[in-house]
Specification:
With 368 residues, the chain is of the alpha+beta class. 22% of the residues lie in helices and 23% in strands. Its EC number is 2.7.7.12.
């Protein structure tokens, strides 16, 4: 099945041998028909959710993930294209961008009558770990990174994020959609091929609940959107802005938690990817490449990072929460990482050794 998306991107859907859907995203019309010739392999069973009653937070228990692939050599990478000598998750011999269901998902499709239990303290029952976990392969080139991709390639990735947000939002059990990328073994990467993931939760994760509470309170008090006012302060202060164009603005946040932390937001605020227009889409790739190049340029090495897309929940906060990208790096010096201290891990109370303004100056000083 083919579908035309914005930006001249075409999505082609096929089936893998175990029944999972694989979607190819191409910047032009390409016939995608390669069949997965691997033997059928049963998908792992669904995990379950348990409530931590001390904080009323859901924990996903997925023991089948213990045996997932861990840092294979390039010649065994499951995210590279299939060759005559190696069958991978991508049956075709080449690709631009592909998305498919994780082979060892923490969250997956539940029964038709699934409902999240009502929280009732110690009496809260377990529930199947409903949701979706998808892999987004950014490129067939194993030896590159997001920052080094072409503007067109990043636009294609963006269309995949937009399309998957739209499609996953249709599922009745999905509450929050979270595209993200981990880069570097320092942040727990298990596959070095350039890729990201999308987690679609059947509940609101704790950080989203806190962000939603803050956004709703600000809207009620002022009648304005919180992220709009945050950006207005950055524009007024000027000193933490590291890049901008007609549609996007990038800055080190006023209360950054990590030595190097960059937030990127559209100047016309939108609730989620489904509201992004062509003007915003066209100008995302150039500024994304710039800020990631600045991050890598601080110490002249590829920086490990976690890049997280925050957007409004599927069914709430549409008038108060706004889409933006948060990129945080645990690297504080060329040979030193920021390890979370007892205060940060145990209490969630962060301590920043470097003033955000200093971090912003270092990022701005990078020669591109």
């Amino acid at each position: 099945m083919k579908q035309k998306l914005s930006g001249s991107v075409v999505r082609s859907d096929l089936k893998l041998s175990d029944g999972r859907t694989i979607s190819y995203y191409d910047s032009k019309e390409i016939e995608r028909s390669a069949q997965d010739s691997r033997g059928d392999e049963a998908q792992p069973g669904i995990g379950h959710l348990r409530l931590d009653p001390l904080v009323n937070e859901w924990v996903s228990v997925a023991s089948h993930r213990q045996h997932r692939i861990f840092l294979p050599p390039k010649e065994l990478c499951p995210l590279c294209p299939t060759t005559a000598d190696k069958k991978t998750e991508i049956p075709d011999s080449d690709y631009e961008v592909v998305v498919f269901g994780n082979r060892a998902p923490a969250l997956t499709t539940p029964d038709a009558n699934w409902e999240l239990p009502i929280i009732s303290g110690l009496d809260t029952p377990n529930a199947d770990a409903a949701g979706a976990c998808e892999v987004v392969c950014y490129t067939s080139d194993h030896n590159t990174s997001f920052a080094k991709l072409s503007v067109q390639q990043i636009r294609t990735i963006l269309e995949a994020w937009k399309d998957r947000t739209k499609e996953l939002s249709k599922l009745p059990y999905i509450e929050q959609i979270y595209p993200f990328e981990n880069r570097g073994e320092e942040v727990g990467v298990t596959l070095s091929h350039p890729h990201g993931q999308i987690y679609a939760y059947s509940f609101l994760p704790p950080r989203i609940e806190k962000m939603l509470d803050a956004a709703n309170a600000h809207l009620k008090k002022t009648g304005r959107v919180l992220l709009d006012d945050v950006i207005a302060r950055e524009v007024k202060d000027e000193k933490r802005i590291i890049a901008q164009n007609a549609q996007w603005i990038a800055y080190v946040p006023f209360a950054a938690r990590y030595p190097f932390e960059i937030h990127l937001a559209p100047k016309r605020s939108i609730a989620d990817f489904t509201e992004m227009d062509d003007a915003q889409s066209d100008l995302f790739a150039p500024i994304a490449k710039e800020i990631l190049a600045r991050l890598d340029g601080v110490f002249g090495i590829e920086m490990a990072y976690i890049a997280s897309w925050y957007q409004a929940p599927v069914r709430s906060g549409r008038d108060s929460m706004r889409l933006h990208w948060q990129i945080v790096s645990v690297r504080r010096q060329p040979g030193k990482l920021k390890y979370l201290s007892g205060s940060e891990s145990g209490m969630g109370a962060f301590i920043m050794d470097l003033e955000p303004e200093q971090s912003a100056e270092q990022l701005k000083a990078v020669k591109l």
